[in-house]
């Protein structure tokens, strides 16, 4: 009964209001009216179609946004790439739109606190022939044919749960569960708790087919590196779980098992508590500034994720023990990437273990000569050659500075400063974000394993 009461309370905050739905419906009506003449202007056939959570009836209360597709008949990829955005600007003239691109051109209309992503795409009749965003209308139609008010609420619970534990979104930076995947799972396992009960038994690689859509074993052979393989009910030759990383899958399995044992509102994104760090690891970070807001958020976050991973790799190569890495972006012109390390400084010398004394002459000679050439030392001990050498880089800040020359920064971003926490540069927005991330324990884990008691 406790789970039911938790979910009932959470649902009250997840359902959109009638006012919200009415406003978004009016926005869609405006866009639909403007776009309805677009195909004729271009001399082609086509139609306007609402897609995504708004169209499916699974919208969350904090999402004042809609997705609209302009499906064009008789055009090819080159036409979409070269002419579609200018067509949208013509049809939406006078409305506040900005152009965006994320593997596909589209525009965003922002009005009265609402947003609409408007995507031009080819009108495709066979989902197996669709590519990228062209599958989205098929996904929307599939869900709409199978959803009902009860399942829509169950989808909202799962989406909020995935958001709350940090694994919602198929973008590169997140590597998590898409909204469509959440809907496929919820419909397939008849609700939120059905999905969690199924996930609590998962062991990677997870190869499942809740809708009997295809051949999951054959699909798994195609997606050998995917820890989660689920045939897309719309296109069984595609893995709808392909974006999910091992980290996200492991997080979801742990959260599902933990929630079923210790349910609580803190798993859901609308009830996320802010807990002070209990313990902090030393961190080295880089503060970025620039007009990153001009690019699609998923692209900026993808570059920031790659940046933090790159810096972590370089610090590891320099001899630092990396604990965790991450990033933060304010959605505008400020961002920070950081790496948590065991220590901000390293010892003066680096210990090295070599081959066995009776290994090939070439291996033994190479190890000895290299150590002596580096000004180090070498000796046999317990059958192995051991040695040490003076470290060239002892400071994490210096190692970070050397790596930044090759680092993949987001478009338009420049390095404002590199700093350590603790340290004199750990201040302002960037410093606060790094300190906030210096205890990587998610709030849901801490509260679940302390029975809901925040740290004292």
Verbal overview:
40% of the residues lie in helices and 20% in strands. With 456 residues, the chain is α+β, with helices and mostly antiparallel strands. It has 4 domains: 14-144, Beta Polymerase, domain 2 (2-Layer Sandwich), CATH 3.30.460.10; 147-271, Orthogonal Bundle (Poly(a)-polymerase, middle domain); 283-345 and 394-440, 2-Layer Sandwich (Alpha-Beta Plaits), CATH 3.30.70; 349-390, no CATH class. It has a 5-stranded mixed β-sheet with strand order 1-2-5-4-3, with helices on both faces. A 4-stranded antiparallel β-sheet has the order 9-10-8-14, sandwiched between helices. β6, α10 and β7 (228-229) form a beta-alpha-beta unit. α7 (149-164) crosses α8 (179-188). It starts with a helix and ends in an 8-residue tail after the last helix. 37% of the residues are buried.
